[in-house]
Amino acid sequence: MDEDLRRESPQRRRNGAAALAALSNRFGPGDAALVLTPVSRQLTESAELRWLVGIEGIAAVLPRVPVEDRRSVTGVLIRDVLRLEGEIAFRTERGETPSLDEAVGMARSVCSLALEVRAQDGLLDDADRTVRSWLDTRHVAVPGGESQIPFSDLEYWMSSHEANLLPAFGPRYAHLLVEELLADRTAALTMTDIARRSRLVFEGMWAAGQESRAELWALLTDYVRVRAPEIVRLSWESISKHQESPDKAAMTMYLKAFADRLYLEFNDDNWVLDGNDAGAAFLAILAARRADVGIEAYPSLVQLAIAWSADEETSVFATQLVDLMVAADVVSVAPILDDWSARLLTDLAPAVVSWLGVHFADVLDSGQQERLVAVLEEATISRQPTPDEGIAFQAFMEQLDARATGSVTFQPFLDQLAQQVRRWSTNPSDYVRYVFPVVPRLFDQIPAPTAGQMLDSLMTNTASNPQIYGLVHEHMIGRWPVPTPDLAPYDPGSIFISASNLVTQRPDDEATPTVLRSLRNMLAREVVNEARAEELIAAACEVWPLGTDAALEVMKAVNVAPDPVAVANLAEILDLTADEGVD
To answer: How many Å apart are CA 364 and CA 348, to the nearest integer?
Structure first.
């Protein structure tokens, strides 16, 4: 038939070859090569025959012809369809221009066919370069329209031919992928697959040498910016393996990008990360390279520290970040400390409040110290703090050391604070509840006359309020000062007598056990004369029926026997048939 066709017109020869191609599956192995090899060569030479047979028909012929013919036909299909510039050259069976949708379908088919041949036989050099370049753009054009085949198609081809296609792409794959990720075109992508392939690319780039490594740092910086948590994790895990290798400029840009990505969590619920893992990784990298962080990254670090400081889950990260920044450059943390100082009593997380107290003297400069004290004054000197402010105030004050409380910035505030406690004691309220607990440990820093007046007023004016009275005694345990002339009118003896009388008169008050312990402490520390022990024992006997534990503590601690009548009364109360009574 082939011999007969050679004597026919070109059109009849094309029709005959097309008929043979259509019958390709019917030939046995021996006949197939004999019959279809001439057809494949005509396909290489004739565009019209290729159109007539069509891409599917050609795909059926290729497996049955010799390798060189298969590569040649595939090469011309690539030239016809996978055009790097201009319009598709392939036509429909009737020789007409395909629609854009048809052209896209042709491109997909030819690319799949080309990759199959590439994997099996390899392509001619020009054809191979064209396929790899076309996969970058996936551009298809016809007169009046053009389209780009989605990246998801490249992912499909990559998954089908990863073993030979990924090495051919190398870093280009990562660059193409990150463009999609940054544009958030990820709906059709499988993150676990692209993360695995990217990791292989990164490992190859590291192994290649210094030039490739410089490109690797830039890629990892782009990867850490994307929305997908899996890809961000891949980025930080990859750079952590070689965190000493990037130069200062590359590491600065990476840390800046990572900080910006972490900050996005606080502004958009769609940009979530595993905050603990991500934050810890960021700080570990920063700790390793803190000396190399350029000023370009500072605004991002400042922004992140401020965002972290409002969230209890990330507040420890905020303090660790500032510690690292302080170690590198104290000046860089100034905007953070200014922000934190202003928010001390509002929305700062407890860990950050405590950090400010611990580092008041050694990190904050004089201006920052003054601004922070002004915040304290506004909330506790000018008015009564709110419950939340009171909690934050106590947390901050408890962390201050002697350098802080003894500073010229803090001393006037402590004097005013003690005076305010004395004033508010005339109308016992939550002010004393929120403010007083921090005062006893600071007695040494408060002017003695002010401290003495405050204690005298508190004990006198809060006696009618069991809750506040008990709170004052609770926080004075271990803190009662030994009387001196400078502390007048403070008189612990009078306070002891008054408290003993109140306990005796009101043994069922909720504050009574605490007051008893406070009085026992005054005796133990010799703040009052040991002769007061009998009064304390008498008070404990009165409390016994309602507060056995507290009364028993006093009796065990004070080496004075109760009055015989009191002992008899106690014996009547005890139920010796019960284990508790025997004990």
So the answer is: 17
